[in-house]
Amino acid sequence: MSHPWMPFYPGDYLADTVHLSTLEHGAYLMLILHYWRNEGLPDDDTKLARIVRLPLEQWLEIRPTLADFFAPGWRHKRIDTELQVTQEKYQRRAAAGRQGGLASGRAKQKPTHAQAMLQPEQSTAEAGPNQSQSQPQSQSHQGESQSATPGPTGISAEDRFWARLEDLKDKGISRTRCTELLALTGHDFIEANRALDGAEQAAKPGQYLGAIIRNLQQSGKASSPSPQVPSWVTERRATGVLVERDGRHWRCLGELLNEAGEAVGW
């Protein structure tokens, strides 16, 4: 899987690398960045020299110092742990998204405000003799509570939204479009999920979702993003990273962060 976002702890890094020179700092950072993206390093000095952008002779001079940060085979315990945490969270979200997809058919039967905007309104002249008979059924739909989550029991609307983004890519719906939809619904995960359910069932999912987004933008009814969710939380969740509320703070990858995204503890 891809790892577009890497956790970095400045305090830990500076404490462990206080003895490094500027050149060694640069080489070490290149090594751990390559490690994160590729889940490991080659055990070959020629390749390692290329990774750190140094001539082989210069790499061999600083190699012993940097090798102290790694286990045999150039394994890095801290990064391996973070990779495992990221993989486990991704698998849980993917499983939740697959389970949530089973409810798409049921959710489609409950049209959202965004979906309703795609349907032309029936004029008085077009109203048929059976209009009065169908009206009670329409009213019953309006009385349903939006708090009901159209997903399987135990999976919140928020978890379902973030879990399904990876699978939606295959249908031509990008993460950017999904987060744009979420913002336009005022971060109403239930409403956003129902709109995505409709898009998944459409012949052209990407175009369908695009029409919903355009109509929301033009309607002037789109709510502003919730002030209770900082923008950095939304951005990290969009990359598949689990961020959860922990009292007055947020917890992400084992670290406790404040509203500004600054580390305040573990």
Can you characterise this structure?
This protein is mostly helical and 266 residues long. It folds into three domains: 10-75, no CATH class; 82-117 and 155-226, no CATH class; 231-265, no CATH class. The protein has 13 helices and four strands. The chain has a four-stranded antiparallel beta sheet. Helix 5 (77-101) packs across helix 9, helix 10 (175-184) packs parallel to helix 12 (205-219) and helix 11 (189-201) packs across helix 12. The longest helix has 25 residues, at 77-101. The radius of gyration is 25 Å and the shape is elongated. It starts with 9 loop residues before the first helix and ends with a strand. 22% of the residues are buried. Residues 131-147 have a biased composition (Low complexity). Residues 90-156 are annotated as: Disordered. InterPro entries: DUF1376 (IPR010781). It comes from Microvirga ossetica.
Topology record:
Blueprint: H1 10-16, H2 22-38, H3 45-51, H4 56-67, H5 77-101, H6 104-108, H7 113-116, H8 131-142, H9 157-168, H10 175-184, H11 189-201, H12 205-219, H13 231-238, E1 243-246, E2 249-252, E3 255-257, E4 263-265
Antiparallel strand pairs: 1-2, 2-3, 3-4
Helix pairs in contact: 3-4, 5-9, 9-11, 10-12, 11-12
Low-confidence segments, given as residue ranges, are: 120-153, 221-227
Order of helices and strands: HHHHHHHHHHHHHEEEE
Largest sheet: spatial strand order? 1-2-3-4
Q: What's the number of structural domains? A: 3
Strand content: 5-15%
Mean pLDDT: 76
Main features:
266 residues; mainly alpha; four-stranded antiparallel sheet; 13 helices; 4 strands; elongated; DUF1376 domain-containing protein; plasmid; DUF1376
